[in-house]
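Reminder to self: tokens first, then the designed residues, so the page reads top to bottom the way the pipeline ran.
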């Protein structure tokens, strides 16, 4: 069974960029265009809207995307079910995490995984960890690494990896600011402090709640996507940020920042793996999931 056309289609549906898809899938642009055209001819409907500036899925393309994902999942499951030896598992597994998580957790996990399952191909995507659960819910990834939300959405499975304190940080040279903010928080001390916060996600929810309990409307200097950008802006003296300790420990800019001893402290992060509950027993996902102890 030739599944390559479906895989090319799904990659294009994710990237919405012919050039990037050609590079990722190691095919020529003409081969990619011809494959998509053949699918559209067989279906009798356009799957993408194309113009000189953008590529978007049609309504029919969105329906075919669901079909293609389901078909490939069922095909991979059938192939794996027919393999008597677990060690010959093969196929493709997509994984999403932040840059920090990629070198904080993945090395140990992948060292064991690649030794046990050398024929499973991993597609690693990095980005804002706040998007981890959403990408799993939308079926964009098989597995994601991120912080467990206070309320885990229905249908999402989680397996913890580690816990990390959530820290307030300031520029290393701002000793007077640190002295002012350390200790028990007060409204007077915090109401005019420029804050650099995540656009969304668990850290943003917790710091927003912290400021509400303090009775302060935070002075937000910048809202950014990704913890690494927060560390960078704080190191330049633009304001105070909130990041997980694991991000700071692995940042090349850690020496240019200082953690603040603020009370009450923010609740720590619980970092782990996410996948869809209904897919947890799929052979490839189970193989990766089992790398972590119960």
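Designed residues (294 positions):
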């Amino acid at each position: 069974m030739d599944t390559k056309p479906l895989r090319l289609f799904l990659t294009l549906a994710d990237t919405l960029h012919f050039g990037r898809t050609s590079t990722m899938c190691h095919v020529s642009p003409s081969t990619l265009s011809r494959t998509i055209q053949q699918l559209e001819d067989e279906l009798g409907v356009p799957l993408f809207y194309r113009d000189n500036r953008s590529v978007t899925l049609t309504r029919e393309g969105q329906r075919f995307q669901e079909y293609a994902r389901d078909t490939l999942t069922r095909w991979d499951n059938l192939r794996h079910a027919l393999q008597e030896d677990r060690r010959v598992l093969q196929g493709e597994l997509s994984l999403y995490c932040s840059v920090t998580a990629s070198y904080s957790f993945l090395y140990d996990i992948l060292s064991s995984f690649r030794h046990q399952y050398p024929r499973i191909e991993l597609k690693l995507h990095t980005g804002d960890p706040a998007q981890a659960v959403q990408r799993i819910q939308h079926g964009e990834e098989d597995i994601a690494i991120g912080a467990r939300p206070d309320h885990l959405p229905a249908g999402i499975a989680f397996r913890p990896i580690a816990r990390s304190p959530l820290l307030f940080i300031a520029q290393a040279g701002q000793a007077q600011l640190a002295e002012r903010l350390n200790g028990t928080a007060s409204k007077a001390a915090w109401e005019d402090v420029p804050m650099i916060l995540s656009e969304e996600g668990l850290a943003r929810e917790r710091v927003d709640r912290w400021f509400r309990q303090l009775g302060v409307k935070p002075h937000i200097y910048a809202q950014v996507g990704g913890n690494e950008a927060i560390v960078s802006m704080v190191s330049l003296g633009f304001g105070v940020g909130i990041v997980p300790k694991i991000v700071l420990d692995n940042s090349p800019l850690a020496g240019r920042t200082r953690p603040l001893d603020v009370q009450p402290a923010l609740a720590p992060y619980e970092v782990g793996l996410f996948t869809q509950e209904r897919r947890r027993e799929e052979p490839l996902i189970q193989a990766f999931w089992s790398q972590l102890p119960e």
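The chain is about 45% helix and 25% strand.
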